[in-house]
Amino acid sequence: MHRRKASKSTLFLMELVLVILLFAFCAAICMGLFGASQKMTDDSDALNHAVAISRTAAGCYKAADGELACMLQLMDVPEEAVVQDETVRIYYGTDWKPAPVSDAAFYLQITLRSDADASLQEAELAVCHMDRTVIFQLPVKKAVLHTGGELYA
């Protein structure tokens, strides 16, 4: 009886298929990592813009002595800003420029608060995605002296 030996070409073909599967598996892992890094980049970019917008709004709030209308004028907000009682929303597009509500991807919500004896003016600034997930929050406080002078907190 003769035993037939396996052909060398069959062994080479099996090795080749295994190597191709290994490279395909590694490529799939790399594509997943690239996708995750792109999301991290987008999140970081949104956070940087949110911090900048919040700091600008906080500076305008303090410069306007806590007056909402003056603050919006200093920020050069378009008329698309939605004002409700002590809350304002300013909408921004994907390029982080003010935009109408229909084209907005983000918004800055400014909520004004004051304490009972009016010695402290407060505002809560929050930059959010349109799905209401908060990107960045910044509390702003401004102390008011009873002698007519002002102290910034």
Give an account of the 3D structure.
There is one protein chain. 41% of the residues lie in helices and 27% in strands. It has 153 residues and is an alpha+beta fold. A hairpin with a 2-residue loop joins strand 1 (82-84) and strand 2. Helix 1 packs across helix 2 (68-74). The model has no long low-confidence stretch (mean pLDDT 84).
Compact summary:
The protein has two helices and six strands, in the order ααββββββ. It has 153 residues and is an alpha+beta fold. The longest helix is centred in the N-terminal third of the chain and has 56 residues.
Shape: rod-shaped
Strand content: 25-35%
Q: Biggest β-sheet, characterized?
A: 6 strands, antiparallel
Helix content: 40-55%
For the residues shown, what is the average pLDDT? 84
Radius of gyration: 29 Å
Strand adjacency order, main sheet: 1-2-3-4-5-6
**How would you spell out the order of helices and strands?**
HHEEEEEE
Q: Which structural class best describes the helix and strand composition? A: alpha+beta
Give a count of the beta strands, DSSP E runs of length 2 or more: 6
Question: Uncertain regions: pLDDT < 50 for 5+ in a row?
Answer: none
N→C terminal distance = 98 Å
Number of helices: 2
